[in-house]
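Predict the assembly for these four chains.
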Amino acid sequence: MRLSARTQYALRAVSELAAAPPGPVPAERIALAQHIPRRFLDNILLQLRRAGIVHSLRGPDGGYWLARPAADITLADVIDVVEGRPEYQADYPGVAQPLAEVWNALREHEERLLTEITFAQIVRP
Amino acid sequence: MRLSARTQYALRAVSELAAAPPGPVPAERIALAQHIPRRFLDNILLQLRRAGIVHSLRGPDGGYWLARPAADITLADVIDVVEGRPEYQADYPGVAQPLAEVWNALREHEERLLTEITFAQIVRP
DNA sequence: ACATAGCCGACTGATTAAGTAGGAATTAGG
DNA sequence: CCTAATTCCTACTTAATCAGTCGGCTATGT
């Protein structure tokens, strides 16, 4: 379960939005709260917006907020956007073939967890 | 659960050794059976030998074999050698803190599976 | 108008991944 | 001893990915 810094930042940013009271949260606030490099965060939030995870508003009192209720956004939703769907295929010849089933089992377990946990659960443990 | 090509090759090579009758198996044979670039495989087998996973013998009729019974070598044993132990640490401020526990849960499940499955199980499913 | 935000593509420097190259050392058989 | 098979070892190369950074533009509320 390797997650890039970018992905972890994205998850933390969304957590921050999920925990915030309604209304736009400026990127600056998120950056400070989660110790994320400001410019990099911009970049990530842009990606999340394009994917429809968050909405945004420019100008004073602008910022970002969740496009859906936190209970409807799973960890997998965010990871998929930032990390991209992993193409998995196994060409394991002969005796090594059973290895592929181990990866499948692991991947499924991972998938199940990540699609079950929402940000509502994260911010209210 | 991201595994580098190197790691997957290592696991497949060990599987091949686990499935072979007693006696040295030349790298060439493994490379052919598993479609692994020959030189690269050399490299990997060297690492496995240094880690004490396999033994080797040079010269004609030389090759590699498992240092221990296949039932005593787990997937984790090989992965740890090739991939190196992952340093995990989480500095998840504030509301994002619960994320860390999700990673822990995933990592533990992964760990459990990988340390339980041996190459004896892989080659005799 | 002005300050405060987000929007956007391009760029950079460091690290890792995936092999390759060239040859030296060892072993068995004749 | 000679030869062929095979492992051993260091170093190199090439491409991709990662983790940001930069410069400037655009929208919005007061």
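Residues 97-116 of chain B form the longest helix (20 residues). The two ends of chain B are 22 Å apart (CA to CA).
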